[in-house]
Design a protein that fits this description.
about 110 residues; alpha/beta; 3-stranded parallel beta sheet; 4 helices; 3 strands; about 15% strand; Peripla_BP_I; signal; SBP_2_dom
Length: about 110
Amino acid sequence: MPSHRVLAALSSAAASTLLLGACSVSTSTTGAEPAAVAPEKQLTIGFVNGNTIEFHTCLQKSMQARAKSAGVDLLIAQSAMDPAKELSNIDDMIAKRVDAIIVQTVNIDALEGA
């Protein structure tokens, strides 16, 4: 099983990739819509958002639009810049057995102890 540090790095990389088009709700640079998920394989992604400032809100809206166009369920939790709440939100996503978790972290150092 990968270490928590590796998982945190992967989550940060995934969020960074999404950030490149965060304020755009365009679903593709080629103009093609993403393929929808097959009904028998419904995916659920958890998004733990660290704050509610404009940048974070923009990222969240973009993720919601992309998830909707791809037929993916997106569960969102707000951490309100509270590292303890962030860890609780991550634990909640794990308990809900989401397929993947993307964390726009409050503080990467706060995740190390988890």
